[in-house]
Amino acid sequence: MTRVLGEGLAFPEGPSVLDGRGVAVAAMRGEGVSLVAPDGTVSLLAHTGGAPNGTCVGADGSVYVANNGGLSATADGGYWHSPTPRPGGVQRIRPDGTVETVVDDLPGPGPRRPNDLCLGPDGLLYVTDSANWDDLRAINPGAVLRVDPATGAMEVLAELPAMPNGIAFGPDATTLYVSQSLTRRVLRADVRDGAVGEFTEFCRLPKGSSPDGFCLDTRGNLYVCGSYGHEVFVHGPDGALKESFPTGPGTQPTNCLLRDGELVVTMALAGTLVGYPRAADPLPLFT
User: Fold this and answer.
1) Rounded CA gap, 284 and 258, in Å?
2) What was the pLDDT predicted at 1?
Protein backbone atom coordinates (compact mmCIF):
# COMPACT_ATOMS: atom_id res chain seq x y z
CA MET A 1 0.00 0.00 0.00
CA THR A 2 1.31 3.43 -0.98
CA ARG A 3 1.86 5.73 1.97
CA VAL A 4 2.61 9.43 2.34
CA LEU A 5 5.77 9.89 4.42
CA GLY A 6 5.78 13.68 4.50
CA GLU A 7 3.71 16.61 3.24
CA GLY A 8 4.01 20.35 2.73
CA LEU A 9 7.42 20.16 1.06
CA ALA A 10 8.40 23.07 -1.18
CA PHE A 11 9.04 21.35 -4.55
CA PRO A 12 11.00 18.39 -3.15
CA GLU A 13 13.94 16.80 -4.94
CA GLY A 14 17.06 14.79 -4.18
CA PRO A 15 16.21 12.61 -1.12
CA SER A 16 18.90 11.03 1.06
CA VAL A 17 18.63 8.79 4.13
CA LEU A 18 19.96 10.22 7.39
CA ASP A 19 20.39 7.20 9.64
CA GLY A 20 18.06 7.35 12.62
CA ARG A 21 16.74 10.78 11.69
CA GLY A 22 14.67 10.26 8.55
CA VAL A 23 15.06 11.51 4.99
CA ALA A 24 16.79 14.72 3.95
CA VAL A 25 15.00 16.35 1.00
CA ALA A 26 16.17 19.20 -1.20
CA ALA A 27 13.31 21.72 -0.95
CA MET A 28 13.93 23.77 -4.07
CA ARG A 29 11.38 26.51 -3.45
CA GLY A 30 12.04 26.36 0.28
CA GLU A 31 15.62 27.48 -0.39
CA GLY A 32 16.88 24.83 1.98
CA VAL A 33 17.03 21.17 2.86
CA SER A 34 14.11 19.70 4.80
CA LEU A 35 14.15 16.72 7.12
CA VAL A 36 11.22 14.29 7.03
CA ALA A 37 11.28 12.43 10.34
CA PRO A 38 10.04 8.81 10.70
CA ASP A 39 6.79 10.11 12.23
CA GLY A 40 6.16 12.38 9.20
CA THR A 41 7.18 15.60 10.90
CA VAL A 42 8.84 18.02 8.48
CA SER A 43 11.48 20.46 9.73
CA LEU A 44 14.21 22.63 8.25
CA LEU A 45 17.61 20.97 8.30
CA ALA A 46 19.37 24.07 6.95
CA HIS A 47 18.73 27.18 4.87
CA THR A 48 20.99 27.16 1.80
CA GLY A 49 19.61 29.98 -0.32
CA GLY A 50 19.18 29.53 -4.05
CA ALA A 51 17.46 26.31 -5.05
CA PRO A 52 18.93 23.08 -3.65
CA ASN A 53 18.43 20.40 -6.28
CA GLY A 54 20.14 17.21 -5.07
CA THR A 55 21.67 15.75 -1.91
CA CYS A 56 23.98 12.97 -0.77
CA VAL A 57 25.40 12.07 2.63
CA GLY A 58 29.05 11.79 3.65
CA ALA A 59 30.64 9.44 6.17
CA ASP A 60 30.53 12.04 8.94
CA GLY A 61 26.81 12.71 8.42
CA SER A 62 27.34 15.90 6.42
CA VAL A 63 24.80 16.48 3.66
CA TYR A 64 26.26 17.59 0.34
CA VAL A 65 23.96 19.76 -1.77
CA ALA A 66 23.88 20.49 -5.49
CA ASN A 67 22.43 24.01 -5.58
CA ASN A 68 21.34 25.31 -8.98
CA GLY A 69 21.45 28.90 -7.80
CA GLY A 70 17.76 29.69 -7.61
CA LEU A 71 15.56 28.14 -10.32
CA SER A 72 12.55 25.81 -10.30
CA ALA A 73 9.94 24.79 -12.84
CA THR A 74 6.26 25.60 -12.27
CA ALA A 75 3.14 23.63 -13.09
CA ASP A 76 2.20 25.98 -15.93
CA GLY A 77 5.51 25.56 -17.73
CA GLY A 78 7.06 28.71 -16.33
CA TYR A 79 9.87 29.28 -13.85
CA TRP A 80 10.19 30.22 -10.20
CA HIS A 81 13.20 32.34 -9.24
CA SER A 82 14.59 32.36 -5.72
CA PRO A 83 14.42 35.63 -3.78
CA THR A 84 17.84 34.67 -2.37
CA PRO A 85 19.81 33.62 -5.47
CA ARG A 86 23.40 32.46 -5.22
CA PRO A 87 26.01 31.13 -7.65
CA GLY A 88 25.27 27.59 -8.73
CA GLY A 89 27.57 25.23 -6.87
CA VAL A 90 28.04 22.55 -4.24
CA GLN A 91 27.43 23.13 -0.52
CA ARG A 92 27.93 21.09 2.62
CA ILE A 93 25.60 21.01 5.63
CA ARG A 94 27.56 19.91 8.67
CA PRO A 95 25.85 17.74 11.31
CA ASP A 96 25.49 20.85 13.49
CA GLY A 97 23.55 22.64 10.70
CA THR A 98 26.39 24.88 9.54
CA VAL A 99 26.27 25.51 5.79
CA GLU A 100 29.57 25.76 3.89
CA THR A 101 30.45 26.34 0.26
CA VAL A 102 32.48 23.51 -1.29
CA VAL A 103 32.71 25.10 -4.74
CA ASP A 104 30.71 27.74 -6.62
CA ASP A 105 33.06 28.76 -9.45
CA LEU A 106 31.94 26.28 -12.07
CA PRO A 107 33.50 26.31 -15.55
CA GLY A 108 31.75 27.49 -18.70
CA PRO A 109 29.32 30.29 -19.51
CA GLY A 110 26.78 31.08 -16.82
CA PRO A 111 24.43 30.44 -15.37
CA ARG A 112 25.70 27.09 -14.18
CA ARG A 113 23.02 24.95 -12.58
CA PRO A 114 24.24 21.90 -10.62
CA ASN A 115 21.41 19.39 -10.53
CA ASP A 116 22.35 16.20 -8.70
CA LEU A 117 25.38 14.58 -7.10
CA CYS A 118 26.71 11.40 -5.54
CA LEU A 119 29.85 10.24 -3.81
CA GLY A 120 32.05 7.82 -5.69
CA PRO A 121 34.26 4.93 -4.52
CA ASP A 122 37.19 7.36 -4.54
CA GLY A 123 35.53 9.59 -1.94
CA LEU A 124 35.00 12.36 -4.47
CA LEU A 125 31.73 14.01 -5.49
CA TYR A 126 30.31 13.40 -8.96
CA VAL A 127 28.04 16.26 -9.99
CA THR A 128 25.79 16.99 -12.96
CA ASP A 129 25.55 20.56 -14.23
CA SER A 130 22.38 21.05 -16.31
CA ALA A 131 23.43 24.51 -17.58
CA ASN A 132 20.86 27.19 -18.48
CA TRP A 133 17.77 24.98 -18.71
CA ASP A 134 15.51 28.01 -18.26
CA ASP A 135 16.37 28.85 -21.89
CA LEU A 136 15.71 25.55 -23.64
CA ARG A 137 15.88 27.04 -27.13
CA ALA A 138 19.44 28.17 -26.51
CA ILE A 139 20.53 25.75 -23.81
CA ASN A 140 24.27 25.35 -23.42
CA PRO A 141 25.98 21.97 -23.04
CA GLY A 142 25.97 20.70 -19.49
CA ALA A 143 28.70 18.73 -17.78
CA VAL A 144 29.64 15.94 -15.43
CA LEU A 145 32.06 17.24 -12.80
CA ARG A 146 34.25 15.63 -10.17
CA VAL A 147 34.80 17.63 -6.99
CA ASP A 148 37.04 16.98 -4.00
CA PRO A 149 34.79 17.69 -0.99
CA ALA A 150 37.79 18.47 1.20
CA THR A 151 39.47 21.06 -1.02
CA GLY A 152 36.89 22.09 -3.63
CA ALA A 153 39.28 21.08 -6.42
CA MET A 154 37.21 20.35 -9.52
CA GLU A 155 37.59 18.80 -12.95
CA VAL A 156 35.26 18.40 -15.92
CA LEU A 157 34.87 14.71 -16.71
CA ALA A 158 32.56 15.09 -19.69
CA GLU A 159 30.61 17.74 -21.54
CA LEU A 160 27.06 16.51 -22.10
CA PRO A 161 24.33 18.33 -24.04
CA ALA A 162 20.58 18.18 -23.44
CA MET A 163 20.44 18.65 -19.67
CA PRO A 164 22.37 16.02 -17.70
CA ASN A 165 20.37 15.39 -14.55
CA GLY A 166 20.39 12.38 -12.17
CA ILE A 167 23.65 10.61 -11.36
CA ALA A 168 24.68 7.42 -9.51
CA PHE A 169 27.16 4.57 -9.56
CA GLY A 170 26.05 1.01 -10.30
CA PRO A 171 26.67 -2.16 -8.26
CA ASP A 172 30.11 -2.79 -9.79
CA ALA A 173 31.35 0.65 -8.63
CA THR A 174 32.91 1.25 -12.05
CA THR A 175 29.79 2.22 -14.02
CA LEU A 176 28.47 5.76 -13.73
CA TYR A 177 24.88 6.43 -14.81
CA VAL A 178 23.59 9.87 -15.83
CA SER A 179 20.11 10.80 -17.02
CA GLN A 180 19.86 13.16 -20.01
CA SER A 181 16.46 14.76 -19.63
CA LEU A 182 15.96 16.33 -23.05
CA THR A 183 16.76 13.12 -24.96
CA ARG A 184 14.68 10.84 -22.67
CA ARG A 185 17.82 8.71 -22.16
CA VAL A 186 19.82 7.35 -19.26
CA LEU A 187 23.50 7.10 -20.19
CA ARG A 188 26.35 5.16 -18.66
CA ALA A 189 30.14 5.24 -18.80
CA ASP A 190 33.03 3.27 -17.31
CA VAL A 191 35.06 4.96 -14.58
CA ARG A 192 38.41 3.25 -14.00
CA ASP A 193 41.63 4.54 -12.45
CA GLY A 194 40.20 8.05 -12.44
CA ALA A 195 39.42 8.08 -16.16
CA VAL A 196 35.88 8.28 -17.55
CA GLY A 197 35.00 6.52 -20.79
CA GLU A 198 32.45 7.51 -23.41
CA PHE A 199 28.83 7.88 -22.31
CA THR A 200 26.51 5.55 -24.22
CA GLU A 201 22.77 4.85 -24.03
CA PHE A 202 21.61 2.48 -21.30
CA CYS A 203 17.86 2.97 -21.72
CA ARG A 204 15.33 5.40 -23.14
CA LEU A 205 11.99 6.47 -21.66
CA PRO A 206 8.88 6.64 -23.89
CA LYS A 207 7.71 9.84 -25.52
CA GLY A 208 6.09 12.21 -23.07
CA SER A 209 8.43 11.26 -20.24
CA SER A 210 11.61 12.97 -19.11
CA PRO A 211 14.14 11.12 -16.93
CA ASP A 212 15.03 12.95 -13.76
CA GLY A 213 16.56 11.36 -10.65
CA PHE A 214 16.99 7.62 -10.16
CA CYS A 215 18.39 4.93 -7.91
CA LEU A 216 19.57 1.33 -8.27
CA ASP A 217 19.19 -1.89 -6.31
CA THR A 218 21.85 -4.53 -5.64
CA ARG A 219 20.80 -6.51 -8.72
CA GLY A 220 21.43 -3.56 -11.02
CA ASN A 221 17.79 -2.67 -11.61
CA LEU A 222 17.36 1.05 -12.23
CA TYR A 223 14.35 2.98 -10.89
CA VAL A 224 13.99 6.23 -12.80
CA CYS A 225 11.51 9.03 -12.23
CA GLY A 226 9.77 10.26 -15.37
CA SER A 227 9.04 13.69 -14.00
CA TYR A 228 6.97 15.20 -16.81
CA GLY A 229 5.14 11.97 -17.55
CA HIS A 230 4.15 11.43 -13.89
CA GLU A 231 5.47 7.88 -14.00
CA VAL A 232 8.23 5.72 -12.53
CA PHE A 233 10.07 3.20 -14.74
CA VAL A 234 12.06 0.14 -13.73
CA HIS A 235 14.75 -1.06 -16.12
CA GLY A 236 16.72 -4.27 -15.71
CA PRO A 237 20.53 -4.57 -15.70
CA ASP A 238 20.41 -4.97 -19.49
CA GLY A 239 18.48 -1.70 -19.92
CA ALA A 240 15.21 -3.40 -20.87
CA LEU A 241 12.00 -2.01 -19.38
CA LYS A 242 10.66 -4.38 -16.72
CA GLU A 243 7.69 -2.36 -15.46
CA SER A 244 6.31 1.12 -14.94
CA PHE A 245 3.64 2.67 -12.77
CA PRO A 246 1.92 6.07 -12.85
CA THR A 247 2.18 8.36 -9.84
CA GLY A 248 -0.94 10.35 -10.71
CA PRO A 249 -1.67 13.72 -12.34
CA GLY A 250 -0.11 16.72 -10.67
CA THR A 251 2.61 14.75 -8.87
CA GLN A 252 5.83 15.11 -10.94
CA PRO A 253 8.14 12.47 -9.45
CA THR A 254 11.64 13.93 -9.40
CA ASN A 255 13.91 11.54 -7.54
CA CYS A 256 13.88 8.35 -5.49
CA LEU A 257 15.69 6.01 -3.15
CA LEU A 258 15.23 2.49 -1.80
CA ARG A 259 15.05 1.68 1.91
CA ASP A 260 13.28 -0.75 4.24
CA GLY A 261 11.16 -2.46 1.59
CA GLU A 262 10.02 0.80 0.01
CA LEU A 263 10.76 2.91 -3.02
CA VAL A 264 10.69 6.45 -1.61
CA VAL A 265 9.82 9.11 -4.20
CA THR A 266 9.80 12.91 -4.07
CA MET A 267 6.69 14.38 -5.72
CA ALA A 268 7.58 17.95 -6.68
CA LEU A 269 4.20 19.39 -7.63
CA ALA A 270 2.33 17.55 -4.88
CA GLY A 271 4.93 18.58 -2.29
CA THR A 272 5.04 15.10 -0.80
CA LEU A 273 7.43 12.28 0.00
CA VAL A 274 5.75 8.96 -0.86
CA GLY A 275 6.66 5.33 -0.24
CA TYR A 276 5.77 2.45 -2.58
CA PRO A 277 6.16 -1.16 -1.41
CA ARG A 278 9.17 -2.68 -3.13
CA ALA A 279 10.90 -5.94 -2.29
CA ALA A 280 14.36 -4.91 -3.40
CA ASP A 281 17.66 -4.47 -1.61
CA PRO A 282 18.95 -0.89 -1.81
CA LEU A 283 22.38 -0.46 -3.34
CA PRO A 284 24.73 0.74 -0.58
CA LEU A 285 25.91 4.25 -1.38
CA PHE A 286 29.45 5.49 -1.10
CA THR A 287 30.14 7.96 1.69
Assistant:
1) 10
2) 81
Sequence letter at residue 184:
R
Buried-state track 242-253, b at ≥16 Cβ within 10 A, e below 16: eebeebeeebbb
Which residues are within 8 A (CB) of 233 and not within 5 positions of it... i.e. 6 or more apart?
203, 205, 209, 223, 224, 226, 241, 243, 244
First to last CA, the chain: 31
- pLDDT of 171-180, one tens digit each? 999 999 999 9
Q: What's the pTM value of the predicted model, to 2 decimals?
A: 0.98
Our measurement of the distance from residue 32's CA atom to the centroid of its chain's CA atoms, rounded to an integer in Å, reads 15
Quick one: DSSP state of residue 84?
S
Q: What b/e readout covers 134-143, taking b as 16+ CB neighbours within 10 angstroms? A: beeeebbebb
Q: What is the CA radius of gyration of the chain?
A: 17
What is residue 261's three-state secondary structure?
A: coil
Contact between 264 and 256 under an 8 Å Cβ cutoff? The reply is yes
Upper half-sphere CA count for residue 91 (Cβ side, 13 Å): 29
On the question of pLDDT at 150 being above 90, the answer is: yes
Strand partners for 171: none
**Do 225 and 276 contact (CB within 8 A), yes or no?**
no
H/E stretch holding 265 = strand 262-267
